[in-house]
Amino acid sequence: MTEIATSIVDTIREPVLVLERDLTVLHANRSFLAHFHVSQDETLGRRLHDLGNGQWDIPDLRRLLGKMLSENDSVEDYRVEHEFETIGRRVMLLNAGRLRRDPDMEHIFLAISDVTERERMENELIASKEFSEKLIDSIREALLVLEPDLRVESANQSFYDMFEVTPEETEGRPIYDIGDGQWDIPDLRMGLEDVLPKERQFNDFEVTHDFPTIGRRIMLLNGRALDHLPRILLAIRDETEKRRHEADQKVMVGELQHRVKNILANVQSIAMATLRRSSTLQEFEGTYLQRLNSLARAQDLLLREGSGYVNLHELVSSELAAHGWEEDGRLTIDGPNVTLSRRETQAFAMLVHELATNAVKYGAFAQPEGRLDVTWSIARKDGDVGLSFEWRESGVSIDEPPGRNGFGTGLIRQSVGHMLGGTSSLDFTPRGAVCKVEFALEA
After folding, report:
1. Which of 46, 80, 276, 406 is spaced 20 to 30 A from 129 at the CA atom?
2. How many CB atoms lie within 10 A of CB 296?
3. Given strand 142-146, what is the order of strands in its sheet?
């Protein structure tokens, strides 16, 4: 090689080898020696495949040079991947050309671009992009990536599912045009155009909007302008169900407080009435506990049903079972399917309890031949649905009916009718007690 050619080769930053036709190294530039950690003595005058104790005996390199020498004058960007003992794994792009000075003198110019780091960085960028995409798709909140002009670059699956739009309707469009203008929301414009340019972010920016397709939504928006990339991240959390649940909870707590207040009022009323009509503390204790147990059984039925309504047949059966009576030859419970509201359940539980208590003391439950028929029917009048309930005892011999208007009989004759907004009557016949109650059922 001439001195000028050698100087030119040495100034090239990429590793370069000049080879004889038999692949003996005629010249190696400084970049080659430095890059592959070899000296001139280890390189010049040696065959390429023998360099570095055989480290350059690379099958892909053999095929490249063999093909070039037999078919082509040059090869461009031939990719070779090889593990060197001294410098580790390298990915190289080889560019080779034949140089002819005369028919008898031919050299091969071999330039080597080490792209190991470049490929590593490209792979890391690809992996990082894939990671970011997977991460965005895994986020349960709706997420938009916006360009500086507020066009949508991408959106995660949660956004598409939450707002019932497709990628074709979303990507590449201004955010305000999504869904035929559904997203042209004044509060959103203020956040993106006024707050974000000044503050570079906004947190839990509440927006309420009625969407034509999915209805009213309450959303919390969090926006971020990225520091090293001209992009905006917009996260959208749909708070609609949470707010509805909180409102329901508030109503439930208020209703619970109201119910507790009513129950305590009932307990107090029962206690005062029982106390006034009890001759001894022992009599008060027994009667009061029985009435509290009746109230508790009604609450158990209401809690078990969960709907706030209780089946009348179940309520009557439960109360009579507490007094040891079940449907058999002496007891009949019959009537159409009727459900009672919470207010009706509490009043009716007390009614049945007092009737059963009287039956235990004086009537059907106190005598071997006693019989009880509990029946009811439904009648419609002027658009209202009315219940006609009858408690009829028979097979009883009552010489003299109860002499005083106790709490139980008073409740049956007056209070129940008042509590249920209807009429009630209680008569003691020689054959047993007969109680009739009529009232309009709640809708």
Report:
1. 80
2. 12
3. 152-155, 142-146, 232-238, 215-225, 201-211
